[in-house]
Amino acid sequence: MNRWLVIPIIAVLIAASMLTTGLLSAMIDLSAFLLLLWTLAKYKKSELRENNQ
After folding, report:
1. Is residue 53 helix, strand or coil?
2. CA–CA separation, 39 and 53 (whole Å)
3. For residues 3 and 26, what is the distance between their CA atoms, to the nearest angstrom?
4. DSSP 8
5. 51 vs 40: CA distance, rounded Å
6. Alpha-carbon dihedral 8, 2, 38, 18, rounded to 10 degrees
7. Which of 6, 14, 24, 35 has the CB geometry, 3.0–4.6 Å to 20, for a possible disulfide?
8. 3-state helix, strand, coil in the chain (%, to 5)
């Protein structure tokens, strides 16, 4: 997934989280957090690959 597409998706998920309550809010927060972690891991992996070459 394109890194620039992930940022607006995370913003939408956080906004949706503020408009909901309970379990749905928790699931939206969790998905935004996991998407952020996935993006950072992917970025670090590509950075390490560039440094090794």
Report:
1. coil
2. 22
3. 24
4. H
5. 16
6. 10
7. 24
8. 90, 0, 10
Output Rg (C-alpha) for the chain, integer angstroms. 14
Is 16 exposed, middle or buried, given 0-12, 13-18 or 19+ CB atoms closer than 10 A? middle
d(CA 2, CA 9): 11
- Say what the pTM is: 0.73
- Side-chain-facing half-sphere of 39: CA atoms under 13 Å: 16
pLDDT digits (tens, 9 = 90+) for 5-53: 888 888 999 999 999 999 999 999 999 999 999 988 988 887 777 777 6
